[in-house]
């Protein structure tokens, strides 16, 4: 089985923080490339790649990294803050996924730039407080890193097969769950969609999130995305 092979592979030696740092570097590189891009097709492709990369990255945090770290901490305020940040990031991704067909519009660049600032702030929180807590937690970060690596790879393949964008759209629309226990959403949202969100999470966990990459040199190749990004090779 692919996940079992990846988990046992001696070549996967990055700890959990290395895996997440690789994603951070790749995300910010794509934003930097967007700033320099002038071709509308290239901008569209970059935004679609950012959406998928962030989707995969946030899933490995929400499903594996944050729950493991929360169990080892007495004070999980920073983790809860990160879950809340994921809500804002997810909503922004959904809006960009809808707006990407109008990449030539006058305010699209402003939307992407504002989104980049939001993501950059979130990354700074993680690489500061949360990573410091992880280093001091006593957790086996190498073992967790292997799990993140395998799950990232599995989800990447899963989204490669998500040609109609159904699963990506479901993730972008679902309410984030703080600690996988209590939704950060209104009461009406909880009663209407918490069950659907849990079902989506279980399907994704059973699936086989990004191919292994190298910090600062990553250029994630990808496939189709949901919404108006679907059908585009990225």
- Outline type: globular
What Rg, in angstroms, do the CA atoms define?
17 Å
Q: In sequence order, what are the helices and strands, one letter per element?
A: HHHHHHHEEH
List low-confidence stretches. Answer: 1-11, 181-227
Distance between the termini: 27 Å
* Overall structural domain count: 1
Number of helical elements: 8
DSSP helix fraction: 55-70%
Architecture blueprint of SSEs:
Blueprint: H1 2-8, H2 16-36, H3 40-72, H4 77-99, H5 108-135, H6 141-160, H7 166-173, E1 177-178, E2 182-183, H8 187-206
Antiparallel strand pairs: 1-2
Q: What is the compact description of this entry?
A:
It is built from eight helices and two strands. It is mainly alpha-helical. A two-stranded antiparallel ribbon has the order 1-2.
